[in-house]
Amino acid sequence: MSVITRDPVVEILNALANPIRLDIMARIAAVDELACTTLETDLPITKSTISYHMRILYKAGLVDIRKEGRFYHYQARRNELDELIPGLHLWLSNRAISTT
């Protein structure tokens, strides 16, 4: 019987397999830091749905979250992304630019 271990690459790919999370991640990767209010304004989904997807991206190790007052700010974990999947951050950034 083998023990299943956590594979960070699998978790990243699973998190990005959802179109909403892929869009959110591309938007975050395209800038230094993205405020939660930007996502709330730009996306046709509720705040609770954004929160749900951000939790998955955070658990997969794709983003860091900083709270300032009652607002959250998201930042891509660029070095970690490119260490596990070289070129991922650049690909995500280019995806955001080409879809806006």
The helix fraction, in percent, is: 55-70%
What is the strand arrangement across the widest sheet?
Answer: 1-3-2
Number of helices: 6
Radius of gyration: 14 Å
Helix and strand element order: HHEHHEEHH
Q: Label the structural class.
A: alpha+beta
Return residue spans where pLDDT drops below 50 for at least 5 consecutive residues: none
Number of strands: 3
Gross morphology: globular
Mean of the pLDDT scores? 90
> How far apart are the first and last residues' alpha carbons, in Å?
48 Å
Biggest beta sheet attributes: 3 strands, antiparallel
Strand portion: 5-15%
Question: What can you tell me about this protein's structure?
Answer:
With 100 residues, the chain is α+β, with helices and mostly antiparallel strands. The protein contains six helices and three strands; from the N terminus they run H-H-E-H-H-E-E-H-H. It has helices at residues 8-16, 19-29, 36-42, 47-59, 78-84, 88-99; strands spanning 34-35, 63-68, 71-76. The chain has a three-stranded antiparallel β-sheet with strand order 1-3-2. Helix 2 (19-29) packs across helix 6. The relative contact order is 0.19. The mean pLDDT is 90.
